[in-house]
Specification:
Layout lengths: L1 E6 L11 H4 L4 H14 L3 E6 L3 H10 L6 E5 L8 H10 L3 E5 L21 E4 L4 H15 L1
Parallel strand pairs: 1-2, 1-3, 3-4, 4-5
Helix pairs in contact: 2-5, 3-4
The structure holds 1,3,4-trihydroxy-5-OXO-cyclohexanecarboxylic acid.
The site of 1,3,4-trihydroxy-5-OXO-cyclohexanecarboxylic acid (DQA) has 10 residues, from loops.
Catalytic activity: 3-dehydroquinate = 3-dehydroshikimate + H2O
Protein name: 3-dehydroquinate dehydratase
Enzyme class: lyase
């Protein structure tokens, strides 16, 4: 089984970016924690972060036939990107949507996601641990 962890814009700044909202953990720590978890379960993980919509779309396209499941935090593209939604629907790879902060407690424009209705599930507001929970849920679903 091969899982892709895909993080969108500004998540490369985790650790220093608005720590009151996103905590102090760095993206590298999140990726390493997921790789550890994956190793224990004999699952391969690839990680990608991009600030560019077209790069995220291309990474999704390249995943077809290679990646079994995706954990995605589309970041600000959650609320804007029909194009990334279409890419995920186009490759038909099951995915879990993660948000570190509780977007429902924030500005109204963060309350709508272009992804949630086509995701297996969403994990919101549980901090960086949400990625680990998403991994567990995704692997369990794919094993069924
Ligand atoms: C986020 C929430 C988004 O609204 C925001 O634009 C982000 C991060 C989160 O993980 O809480 O960049 O996806």
């Amino acid at each position: 089984m091969h899982i892709l962890l895909l993080n969108g814009p500004n998540l490369n700044l985790l650790g220093t970016r608005q720590p009151d909202l996103y905590g102090q953990i760095r993206l590298e720590d999140i990726e390493n924690s997921l790789k550890d978890l994956a190793q224990q379960k004999n699952v391969a993980v690839s990680c990608c972060q991009s600030n560019a919509e077209h790069e995220i779309i291309e990474r999704i396209h390249k995943s077809k036939g290679v990646i079994d499941g995706i954990i995605i935090n589309p970041a600000a593209y959650t609320h804007t990107s029909v194009a990334i939604r279409d890419a995920l629907a186009g490759v038909a790879i099951p995915f879990v949507e993660v948000h570190i902060s509780n977007v429902h407690q924030r500005e109204n424009f963060r309350h709508h996601s272009y992804f949630s209705d086509i995701a297996i599930g969403t994990i919101v507001g549980l901090g960086a641990k949400g990625y680990d929970y998403a991994f567990d849920a995704l692997v369990t679903t794919l094993q069924k």
